[in-house]
Structure formats: structure tokens, C-alpha cells
Amino acid sequence: MNRRKFLQYASLLTAAGLTPIGLHGWAARGMASTTTNKRLIVIFLRGGIDGLNVVVPYQDPDYYEARPRIAIPQPKEKGGVLDLDGHFGLHPALADLMPLWKQGSLAFVHACGSPDTTRSHFDAQNYMESGTPGDKTTSDGWMNRLLATLPEVGPTQAVNIGSMISPILMGQNSVASLPPGNQATRSLSVDRSQLNAAFERLYRGNDPIHLAYQEGQQAREILLATLAAEMREADNGAPPPNGFAKDTRNLARLMVGDSQTQLAFMALGGWDTHINQGSSQGQFANKLKSLAQGLVTLVKELGSVYSDTAIAILSEFGRTVKENGNGGTDHGHGNVMWILGGGIRGGKVYGEWSGLSESALFQGRDLAVTTDFREAIASLLEQHIQLKANQVAQVFPGFTSNHRLQSAWK
């Protein structure tokens, strides 16, 4: 079968909300030595979130000098940060997350990011999703390579929440795709019994395309059945919330249901705040509040499964230390990674903090990266997913961990 014909079939599957696959998506995975019931959720904040206004270095006078309009006030001041450790504070719009910090299941890795210096959203996101910064030839994503290290348990083992598969999950191993929001459970033409029967007759063979369709249909049936059962029980007649919280609720219900979902990815946009970013109030604060509500919903709905789940939140790069003339910030470098979960040794800001003095800044304008994002993820894979060193090397080829963040895990 030629590539054009294959893509036509792949488009059909994607439109039906089934299992999008890579060009070799039907390739069988070998049995890995690792067996684990641990879960991993990765949330990507597209646009380059301003990490300095998320986890605020409020004891650093250079922070306030660089941001006269958008800096978050010090603790106990009106609209002030929520003190974390006496040096860093959390944006007040994230107040809903403070109980997780206090109970020790939320941590941050500051001055974290990609070693590549690009300020292009497209390139930076692709580098972070491929896991090979600076290398444009990598065709698969690190979460797909991670999937390859795990024993196969079913067609919904890895789930992408979104209208299309993100690069981080692209590769040889097939993943299930769940549309966002109310589209997740909407009826499709392929659900009609007559059409469904016709498709089953058409794709009953054993060649790769037929097997891909069969796997996709199986994945969809599992996802819909799990969501339908969980929604009836948990909603109790109440209307579902909108936006991010709706998606995190759906995802949590898959993980606590019968779908065997172990890996999941979702992305949120709107973090490219060049204009009118705001301080404790404003567009940035509003987005953070919705993000916090979605995360709290996710943790609540996961219930006991949360103890076996790690949630990593990252963005392609940070923002400039100095605010710009439009009351916003421009593309920067270093950022902050968020990590939540039952296995994290939370209540702490990890990473090496070099400060915001002009001599410490990257190219004289940005927070420097002192922790490679792969280091943070590698520690998660080793300590939480329990991968061996050679398996981590498969996920991040060419990267050598320095194991500095092992102490972040229980």
C-alpha cells in the first residue's frame, strides 16, 4: 500500500475518534522486563508560560525591579504570593493547589527547561516532545518510546486528550485518542449500527490497515463504555463542568475505570502573554485559576489511584525576566516544571537557583536553565515508573542523567 492510500485510511480513523497510528503503528511491542501499575500524565502548557509569575522568587529584589507592573506582591500584601518556603511563593490564583503542597504531593523544579536556545514555539515544542533538543530528525515522541518499554496491556494503555495526536505520542506504538470537552462522548457516524456493521465487514482482514481499524474500534468502545458508566455514577444528574476540568474529569474516570490507561497526554494553549499579562489579576491569573481547578478535579476524581500517579506539567520555554512595553513578557528560556503525585516528596522547590541578577541571566535577559527537563522526567521514570537505566536511555537517546533529582521521590 502506498503512503497516500495509507494516509487516507489514517484520516478516516482519526475522524472517527478511533486510534490514530504512526506509519508502523501496528508493530508489535516486545515484552519489557518492567511491570508496574504506575500512571503518568503529562500536561503541556503551549505558548511558553511565565514561570517567574507562577513560582515567584519574591525574596529576589531583581524580580521586582524587572517587573514594576506585573510582579506579584510579596506575601501578606494585597494580591500577594502564597508563601511556599520563605523564598518562593505561589501565584494567588493557584490557591486551590496549596493543600496539595502542604500535604507533600506537589513540588516544583525551577530554572528547568530545554538546553536548546531556540525562541521558536514550534521548534521548542517539538524538541521537548521528541526528547531530543536540537535534533529535527527525530520522528517519534518520548512518550511513545516510553510506551515501548512497558508491557502491553491493551489498546487504551496510552491516551491522547485532544483533537489530534500530539508529537510527544507519535511513533511506532499505537495510542488511543479522546476528543476534548463534550466531543469525548458525542455520537459519530461510525457508531450507527448499519454503518458499523459495514465497516466491520470491510475491515475484517489481517493486513495492517484492517488490524489498525479493528484496534481503533476496540479502543473507542472501551473508552466510551468506561466514561458512560463512571459519568452516570459520579455526576448524579449535575451538569458537567466546562473546559479543562471537564477533560481532567474524563481522563481520571478512564484511569479509575476499566480502560487500563497508564499514560496520558493533554495540552492547554494561551500562555503566550506578550500583551496585558496582568499581575495578581488579569488574563494570566484567570488562566491559572482554570488550570488549578482542572488539576484539583483530576486529583479528586483519581481518588486512590492518585497515589500511583505522577503528573508532570511543562512548557516549551519561560518568559523574559523584564516585562515589555506592552505589560507582558516575551519569549525566554528557563522555566518551572510542576510535579504532582502520591510518590513525590513534595512541599519543596527543587533545582539550582542562580538568581535574577544581570550576570546570572541567560543572554542577559532570561532565567538560565540549570536543570535539563529530561533530568526531571528521567528521575520520574526511574523512581516512579521504575524503569531501568537502559530503558530510560531508550526514552531519551543521547542523554545521560546526573541523578540530582532522585531525592524528589519517596
Structural account:
The chain is of the alpha/beta class and 410 residues long. The chain has a domain at 31-153 and 262-408: Alkaline Phosphatase, subunit A, CATH 3.40.720. The protein is 32% helix and 12% strand. It contains eleven helices and twelve strands. It has helices at residues 3-15, 61-66, 98-103, 121-130, 142-149, 193-202, 208-235, 243-256, 283-302, 373-383, 389-395, and strands at residues 39-45, 55-56, 82-83, 89-90, 106-113, 158-161, 176-178, 263-268, 309-314, 335-341, 349-350, 371-372. The strands form two sheets. Strands 1, 5, 6, 7, 8, 9, 10, 11 and 12 form a nine-stranded mixed β-sheet that branches. A hairpin with a 5-residue loop joins strand 3 and strand 4. Residues 1-35, 184-191 and 230-242 have low confidence and may be disordered.
